[in-house]
Amino acid sequence: MSLNKELHRLARKSRLDSLSHHLKTRVEQGLEQRIKLAITGLSRSGKTVFISSFAHHLLQSDLGTSLPFFAASADGRIIAARDLSTGSIQPFPLAKTLDGLRTYPPHWPDSTETLSEICLALRYRRSPGLGRVLGEHATLYIDLIDYPGEWLLDLPLLELTFEQWCQQQRQLFAQAPRASAAQAWLARQHDIDWLAPATDAELAQLSETFRTLLQQLREPPHSLSLLQPGRLLMPGELAGSDLLNLFPILTAFPENPAEAADDSLLVRLQQAYDRYCQDVVRPFYQDHFRHFDRQIVLVDCLKTLNRGRACFNDMQLALNTLLQSFNYGRSGLLRRLFSPRISRVLFAATKADHVTANQHHNLDRFLQLMVESAQRDIRFEHVDTRCLALASVRATQAAEARLDGQHLSCLRGMRKDTGEEIALFPGEVPVELPGDADWNSERFRFVDFAPRPLPAGPLRPEHHIRLDQAADHLLGDLFR
C-alpha cells in the first residue's frame, strides 16, 4: 500500500514538474523579443561591410572573445547564437562576404544591389534580480535589413509634388559641380517643348540620358550623395521597367500646364513621378522603414573631406534630408501598437582604422558637427542618440615613427588602389567644420586601405574598432 502511494506521489510530482516546465517555457516564449535594426547609410558608406561584420561577431558573442564592451557577451550571459536567415525571402550573402574577407588577399564586398536580410537569434540568461521572475532564459531575435543606399534618398519624394521636386532639383543643379557636369543636359532641356506631344521612346531616351548624368555625379571626382531618383542608379528588380522613365524639369516650369497635350512630356513626367512615388517609394517605406525599432546611420566622413567642399556640403544636406524621413519618438506600448517608432539611434563614422587612435575622439566630434541639427531634433523626441567612430573590419595596424627626436603615431596597411604595403601618418581629423582655408590648402588626404584577412576561427577585439560599443548602444538594454 505504501509503495502504491509513493508511486502515485512521484507520478503527481512528475506531472506538476512537467506542467511547471511547460508554463515556464510558454512564459519565456511569450516574452521573447524581436528587434528590427535599420542599417542606414548613403551609397558606399560601408553598410555591407558593417552588416557582415556585425552579424559575424554577434554569431560568436556566446564565446565572449571579441566584444569586450558588449556587456551581455563579456559577462558570459549569451548562451548560444544562431543564423535563421535561410527562411528569408532574400537572405543576405553573409557566407560570400565573409569568404571574401578571409581569402588572401582579402577584398571588400560589393555594394548592395537589392533588398536582403539577416535574421539572428541570441539565447541568453537574464540578469539577476526582478528579470529572473520572468524566467531564467530568453531569446532576442534581431532582424538586420540591407538595401541599397541609393534607395534611401527617395523617401522625401513622398512629401513633394512633381513641381516642388523639380524646383528643388533646379536649385541643386544651379550649383557646382552639378552645373558644369550638366551643361549639355541643361542645353537639351532648353530645346524641349514640354507641352507638345511626345512618344514613349523619347521619354525613355531622355530618362536614360539623365541616368547617365547621375552616374557621372556619383563617381569621383564629384562623389555626390543627394541623387534622385535613387532607383535610376540602383534599379534592383525594376531594371528595364518603365517606372524608371523619369527625370526632373530643370528649366523654368511651364507657365500654362493646363494647355499641355495629354501625351506631352510634362503630363507624362507628372504621371511617371506619381507612379514612382506610389508604386515604388511608398510600398518600400510601408513594408520596411515604418517597422524599424532602432537605427544606425553610417557616414564616411573621411571620404567627404578628401573630395572637397562640394562633396562635403552635399553629403551633409543628404543626411539631413534623409533623417527627416524617419519616424522618431517614444516607443511606448500603445504607440507601438498603432505607429512603430525608432527609439534609439547611433550615428557612426566608418573607417576609424584609417586614422590613428588619438584621432578617434576627433572623428566622433566631427560627425557630431555634421549631424548636429538632426540629432538635436531627434533628442527632442526622447530618442537616445550617440555619435561613435568605428571600424567594422580593421584594415590597419598601429605603428610608430621617429621624427626630429619625437615619436609619431602612424598606421601600417595595404593601399586599396595599389596593394602596396605602406606606413604613414594619415593626418588629423578637424574638430570644427572646415572653413575656406581648409578646402583651399588641400589639407585632407586620407588613404583608403584594403582589408586585413579575417581568421577562420574565433574573432578577437583587434579585428574591429568599437563594434562592441555599437552593439551595446543598439542592443545592450534588451538583455535584461
For this entry, give a set of tags.
480 residues; alpha/beta; Rossmann fold; 4 domains; 3-stranded antiparallel β-sheet; 15% strand
Distance between the termini: 50 Å
**Helix percentage:** 25-40%
Mean pLDDT across residues? 87
The counted number of beta strands is: 10
* Class by SSE composition: alpha/beta
Sheet with the most strands, sense and barrel status: 7 strands, mixed
Please work out how many helical segments DSSP would assign.
Answer: 17
Care to describe what's here?
The structure is a single chain. The chain has 480 residues and is of the alpha/beta class. It is 39% helix and 15% strand. The protein has helices at residues 2-30, 47-59, 71-74, 94-102, 149-152, 162-173, 178-181, 183-190, 200-218, 265-287, 301-307, 309-323, 333-338, 360-370, 372-380, 436-440, 467-475; strands at residues 33-41, 78-83, 116-125, 137-146, 294-299, 344-349, 384-389, 397-403, 406-414, 421-424. A hairpin with a 6-residue loop joins strand 9 and strand 10 (421-424). Helix 11 (301-307) runs antiparallel to helix 12. The radius of gyration is 26 Å and the shape is globular.
Helix and strand layout, with pairings?
Layout: H1 2-30, E1 33-41, H2 47-59, H3 71-74, E2 78-83, H4 94-102, E3 116-125, E4 137-146, H5 149-152, H6 162-173, H7 178-181, H8 183-190, H9 200-218, H10 265-287, E5 294-299, H11 301-307, H12 309-323, H13 333-338, E6 344-349, H14 360-370, H15 372-380, E7 384-389, E8 397-403, E9 406-414, E10 421-424, H16 436-440, H17 467-475
Parallel strand pairs: 1-4, 1-5, 5-6, 6-7
Antiparallel strand pairs: 2-3, 3-4, 8-9, 9-10
Helix pairs in contact: 11-12
Organism: Marinobacterium weihaiense
Pfam family, one: DUF463
Protein name: YcjX family protein
